[in-house]
Amino acid sequence: MIMNRSLYVAAGLAVVIAACSPSLSVDTLNDDPVTSADEQSESIEAPTAIESADDSSSDFVAPTELPEEPPPRGAEREFSTDFSKRSIAYSEILSGGPPKDGIPAIDNPQFVTVGEADEWLEDLEPVTVLEAGGETRIYPLQIMIWHEIVNDIVGGQPVTVTYCPLCNTAIVFDAMVDGRRLDFGTTGRLRFSNLLMYDRQTESWWQQATGDAVIGELLGTQLTFLPAASIAWSEAAESFPDAQVLSRETGYSRNYGSNPYVGYDSINSSPFLYDGPATPGRLLPMARVTTVDLNGEAVAYPNDVLVEQGVVNDTVGGTEVVVIWQQGLASALDSNRLAQGQDVGSNGVFERTVDGRLLTFSLSGDTITDDQTGSSWNILGEAIDGELEGKSLNPLVKVDHFWFSWAAFRPDTRVYQP
Fold first, then answer.
1. Contact 133, 157 (CB under 8 A)
2. Each residue of 4-26: pLDDT tens digit?
3. What pTM, to 2 d.p., does this model score?
4. Do the Cβ atoms of 324 and 363 come closer than 8 Å?
5. Residue 211 near residue 83 (C-beta atoms within 8 A)
6. Which of 56, 88, 187, 271 has the fewest CB neighbours in a 10 Å radius?
7. CA 125, 397, 58: angle at the middle one, nearest 5?
8. Is the dihedral of CA 82, 85, 91, 93 positive or negative?
9. Could you state, in order of their start, the residue ranges of all structural domains in the chain?
10. CA atoms within 13 A on the CB side of 405
């Protein structure tokens, strides 16, 4: 959520930027502790590095009986939430620094054309692409990193587009629950370093990584994840020339294009404000993984494996899937400018059947082909050459995480190994 607090002058007023402070190095975190708006006199220190844990000792079991404890400090003053209803221990919640809505969600998003956005977006910048109801919208992470939530309607479908920088999780949800549209804001709190959102209709609290209500009236309600592509701007612009792109005219003054989490995604760094289950030692806490959860089975595909393999054929929860990887995507959490981040590559996860025919995919040079017809496929699951040209694979929900984040919520995960 935030690395520390800084003052930003806008319209002659000093306001707290809740997203984070510009040009902050991870190395300075312990020297500049975060403080919340209602705890000015108390500081929260960043945790020490997570120690590796044997698989046998890393299983985290949620308590069957929650301890008697008060809600997070200051929460009852800020929220009208029913804090008597909860599925988590309040001791697991930490202040990220800002108060309620200190990181402002975008509730009235404005959009520009691909041509207009190309004037300020660079080729390898990361973006989230959502297709719904015949409409395509693109959400640049250079904006999402400062706001974390966009409440929108795409193709007539209410959606909530989210990004938690501390976990590197870009997730899109269907915003309709039991026939009612919800819109979301930030609580200013974290659980296992992950964004805790709240809906403005009931002020229930929701875990972004899992999409379920963990506190309040809607306790236990599950949001529906929507498939969305996380790809480079150049790929998005070429593939979706008629798409609408989230505008930098947000109503807020932010240094869009800059990365306030410089160096955070270093493989040797530690999660910020993480106080959760020990991370299984099979992967380092900050290792990038792509996760899939189908029919009760969770699988994590380490980025290092995807880089080496290029394509993975697998079965998850009884569904035949293919994971496609390609180079050419800048990390949003590396350099001080998003566009200059290290190349971490992008990927897509799809059902590997077309017209009832099961396909097996392989890497031929730099090209993904299916073994049955020799057709060529791109990162969006589209056949771009060969017998199946024009056909598309069915996209599946996948979420990119840091390993510590996913493992905290799904310790039962199978880590894919070739």
1. yes
2. 323 222 222 222 233 333 333 33
3. 0.86
4. no
5. no
6. 56
7. 95
8. negative
9. 1-282, 288-415
10. 31
